[in-house]
Amino acid sequence: MKEYSIKNLRNVGLIGHSGTGKTTLAEALLYYTKSIDRLGKVEDGTTTTDFDPEEKKRQISLQASVAPFAYQETKVNLVDIPGYFDFMGEGIQGMRAVDIATIVISAASGIEVGTDKSWAYVNKIKLPRAFYINKLDRENTDFDKVFDSLKEKYGMSVVPIQYPIGTAESFSGVINVISNRARIHDPITFEMKEQPVPEEYEDKVAELKEMIVESVAQTDEVLLDKFIGGEELTKEEIYNALIKGCVSGDIAPVMCGSATKVIGMTTLLEDILECFPTPEYAIPQKAVDLSSNEEVFIGLTEEKPFSALVFKTIADPFVGKISLFRVITGNVKPDQIVVNTNSDKQEKLSNLFFLRGKQQFQTTKVIAGDIGAVSKLQYTKTGDSLCDPKFRVVYDKFNFPEPVMTMSVIPKAKGDEEKISSGLSRLLDEDPTFTVKRDTENAETLISGLGETHIEILASKLKNKFGADVRLELPKVAYRETIKKTSDVQGKHKKQSGGHGQYGDVVIKFEPRTDGEDELQFVDAVVGGVVPRNFIPAVEKGLKDSIKEGVLAGYPVIKLKATLHDGSFHPVDSSEMAFKVAANLAFKKGMEMASPILLEPVMRVEVSVPDEYMGDVIGDINKKRGKILGMEPVDGLQKVMAEVPQGEMFRYSTDLRSMTQARGDFRMEFARYEEVPAGEVAKIVEKAKAYREAKE
Question: How far is CA 143 from the centre of its chain?
Fold first, then answer.
């Protein structure tokens, strides 16, 4: 690719609800600018940006993918971002690489949950935004209706800079409102031929232009004076004010077209060049200057030494690790030695290239504002900063959402544990939004992600990329056992054989621990040497070993106080082992006599939902044996605080999504253990017994 300056770059993120046509729009722009020679289709698995086998199979985008192209001496980096909520982490990564987000909307569906979430997110990170109303060739579509709903929902900042010619089957072109030019689509060549604005649209275009002028005038005092004084604003003044309004978030331009039929690409490209900000306007990046240890804000510029942020990693089993980075300052050339300021390690950037989907294009330079890629970095992961040794800064980390769903990964073939462990480690490089944990109690590997689909795709990647075939199951609940009453019992171990015998005798009082702690509380209350001092640690050790398995269902015992207060010994036959066995006998007898009970982990849950879903959410929590602790309004949503048994919460992310049309969010953390209701105990005991038998 030829070299460009920072002024000739545009970085555009395509975001929005799943299925609105973001990937198809990227494909149409690549095809229209002759960057690719055939128009791929999502259904056929032939698009440039959906190149992963899982994306082709499921026909949805699963990762942020970069697609650069050139148009009129300008390089545009499109970043196609998944709309599916399980892949929110990819959106967070992709948004750090762009200067404006284009929220794609289906003209047939209008505003959807993903539209709202995209708008809320770009507002949160103060990123300029625009709208693209897609699929205007579909039946029953109405640009005016969708535009009015956008204006009503998101306010006066929403401004139409394009207007469609015709609707549904008769949709044939797009009018550029500011330049007052109409372009008609040629279905044979896909070119857009310029012609005067059709007479029936003249009044509408004049009305929309007045709306634009009024909006841009409010971004600048000089323009406002001209507007109030009745002077006409020039095209240049309008375009410059649009860029400033975009950057400040005061204006969100609205464009339109049909990606599948490649209608409206010329007008879209012109407005990307004329109305979208260059990287010079990008929000300064928050960082820590390591020379002074102070927080600084660094604007995108070619003037300073090189620094870049690695915003995404691709784990390829054949090529190795590919790191995608955005240059913030300066530029970088092949074979340059840089410092990873997060790990304080040197890296050599041997092989620099640009990515378009999975295609690599070698380059001799990546400048500030541009998006580059490098392979086989040794110490670098997503979120790390790469810098010139003379300019050491660490850019702000990513704020990824916490995982909300956990599944157990069971190998289908014996001996695959090593493959699974290695594969998950490689996938963690690529996807920082999931976590892996080993549950030693149940001998399970647990993966936690942002939803059921997220975890299923991780399992598919394990198989397809790393040859480890796994089964996903709900994790086992970490039940515990304790006692409700007090017991005072003797544990006596006496065994005679040919030589030395074995003799240990203890009397232990077992009672529930009342100080709120879970660990075993061992009290030595022996008087008169009935149990010699050198055997008392063996009694404590015997009890600590015993509490690993309770008497009801074999779960660990907590909240137990054991007081050793009597016993006897034999001067020859007593040993540490004998007293450990005696302690175990006392434990079993004491537990059975002190009303043993099962405890289950209870989670503290906070659910944020719009008002209209409150009834369903509260009803569902009650069904899950939960207790509502309270409610409060937060940021226009209702926050419900509750406590719910963990066993009822493993699929809650899926339940909440279906209950609230994906408008609800939740977080949870462990609160405490509580007694299992009597009706549930028999089922749990039976399950535990079956599991133990299967293991044996």
Answer: 33
pLDDT in tens, 232-242: 888 888 888 88
The two structure tokens encoding residue 293: 């240890």
pLDDT band at 695 (very low <50, low <70, confident <90, very high): low
Distance between CA atoms of 560 and 555, rounded to whole angstroms? 14
Half-sphere CA count of 573, side-chain side, radius 13 A: 17
Query: DSSP readout, 36-60?
Result: SSS---TTTT--SS--SHHHHHHTS
What is the distance of C-alpha 111 from the center of its chain? 22
**Based on C-alpha coordinates, what's the Rg of the chain?**
33
Distance CA 425, CA 461 (A): 12
| Dist CA 35 CA 14 (whole Å) | 18
Alpha carbon distances (Å) from 392 to 113, 295, 298, 338: 41, 12, 12, 10
Taking only the tens place, the pLDDT of each residue in 126-177 is 999 999 999 999 998 999 999 999 999 998 789 999 999 999 889 999 999 9
Cβ atoms within 10 Å, residue 373 = 21
* Tokens coding 459: 């399992």
Residues 6+ apart with CB under 8 A from 415: none
Q: Which runs of E-coded beta strand occur in 330-434? A: 331-332, 336-340, 345-349, 352-356, 359-362, 366-367, 371-375, 385-387, 393-395, 405-411
Task: State the average pLDDT over residues 81-88.
Answer: 92
Q: Is the dihedral of CA 93, 98, 99, 102 positive or negative?
A: negative
Q: At 202, which helix (H) or strand (E)?
A: helix 202-217
Which residue type is seen at 626? G
